[in-house]
Amino acid sequence: MDQPVAATTDDALMLAWAAGDASAFEVLYGRHRGPLFRFLLAQLRDRPLAEELYQDVWQRVIAARATWRPEAAFATWLYRIAHNRLNDHWRAQRHRPPAPLDAELRTAALADPEHPGSVAEQHEQRQRLQQALDELPDEQREAVLLRLQQELSLEEIGRITGVGRETVKSRLRYALDKLRARLNP
Q: If you write DSSP's letter for every residue of 89-137 in order, what string do you get?
């Protein structure tokens, strides 16, 4: 690669990795491991299960490296794999499981130590937000997480979830209205 690895696009890294450059995969993995895991954890609310699905998603990326083509952005493709894996999980479960009994402890463990403010206040805010997110319908929660946590465009979210841009907009609007009403009574 001619440009510094950190400045290389995800698509270029994926193509380089498919051509045999192992360091390109290391950069891709480093860029997406945290956001992808947080997305799965927010959807599943079960760390061991999120870790299992996280590994499955990366295994699918590894298995598809030779056939990958930059028809969609790498991040869109990655989150589409995650979306499909989540759907497979929910179909197998036939329902969304309740939050684990230690959900509050898990949420507290995810607190960002570098963020200003008191730990107790952060914990309370995160708990209220997580509870509000948990109350959203699955499709709305997924759209919000992909938009706010992963900073994906409406089009990318639509490609990941298999719906049109206007449906994504509608889901986001309803979800954000519900979150505002719940968090600002």
A: HHHHHSSPPPPPTTHHHHHHHT--TTSSS-HHHHHHHHHHHHHHHHHS-
